[in-house]
Amino acid sequence: MSIMKMIIQIVRIVSIQPLVSMLLAFGLLSFSDLSSPELSAAESVVVYSGRAERLIKPVLDHFEQTTGTTVQLLTAGSTELVNRLRAEKARTPADVFITNEAGALELARSLHLLQPITLPEVAMAIPEHFRAPDNSWIGLSGRMWVIVYNTKTVDPSSIHSLLDLAAPSWKGKLAIPTANSEYLQAGASMVLAAKGEKTAKNFLEGIRDNAGNEVYGKNRQIVDAVAKGKVSVGIVNHYYIFRHLAKDPEAPIAPLITDQDKDGMGSIMNVAGIGLTAHTKHLSPAKELIAFLISPTGQEMFAQINKEYPVNPAVNADPAVPPASSFRASTIPLTRLAELREPIIHMIQDLGLR
Question: How many whole angstroms separate alpha carbon 254 and alpha carbon 256?
Fold first, then answer.
């Protein structure tokens, strides 16, 4: 086996983001080198996933086992996969595109990389505000961007809004995601949409100063820092808190859902979702996969395994998480995330977040 073939085989097996970025930068690979394995024409579907493998593979494995359809999974960063779809055009082997937030899906739609999902189940299973206007992408599971706090050091009644964490009183007590985190970018975009440029800038400046060196690449690292008392509060997706508590029920942490006042912006709710690629070669199994993921069985798996909120209203969330009826979510359309992605990334860069 040649060196190049060995590299390509490795890329196909593992999550490719760090390796691909390096190889592309040095000119050792091109997008054409990264073509997926040959597929049997009838019973295969290729998934490009911006979600970590551990969050999506158990559900895909269940689909494989129950249908006999082979799933070829390729994981990388959502933005990187959008760029790959653009480069591959009609040559792409991808049948569906899964991301961890709606902004990347809406960006793919705006670039004409997706096509409408013509399934009768969509209208029945997925509320309109969790899908694109033309149904070219739909939500699969919801997550809130919440505050995780240390129950030994923080009085939750002292925090009413996510924006409160920008106050100087939290200096040295806060942990945040890195500047390139899609969760930070999406959350800050929602603040920008709800409160305007000045408030968004003040929020980002404040959390930058308050966090200092407490900047983490993974949400679970933020939760761990709060649990160990290294910091008092952090900003994370809600399900990381409940996964930690499932492993360590005595951990001194809890979620805080903010911005519930009459004039508050509501909790920031985003969705992981799926789109049908414009150039799918396996339309029937791709639609079968989408139908499974929004079915009660697929939705229950997201709820039980990941502690995420099912977007299908017929399916209940895991009892460990606050019921959706107990809080008010932001009403900002998720389609705005793509529109605001570039402005918020520029703002984050200009303010020097790490």
Answer: 7
Q: How far is CA 277 from CA 116, 123, 236, 283, 352, in A?
A: 9, 19, 30, 9, 35
**Residue 5: per-residue pLDDT:** 43
Residue with tokens 């995601």: 177
Distance separating alpha carbons of residues 137 and 117, to the nearest angstrom: 7
Please give the Cα distance from 140 to 137 (Å, whole number): 10
Tens-place pLDDT, residues 199-234 = 999 999 999 999 999 999 999 999 999 999 999 999
Q: Which residues contact 104 (CB under 8 A, 6 or more apart)?
A: 50, 78, 79, 81, 82, 182, 338
Contact between residue 193 and residue 201 where contact means Cβ atoms under 8 Å apart: no
**How far is the CA of 201 from the CAs of 35, 127, 345, in angstroms?**
41, 32, 12
Question: What is the rounded distance in angstroms from the CA atom of residue 333 to the CA atom of residue 340?
Answer: 12
Predicted pLDDT of residue 19 = 44
What is this structure's pTM?
Answer: 0.85
Domains and CATH numbers, the chain: 3-142+270-324 (3.40.190.10), 143-268+338-350 (3.40.190.10)
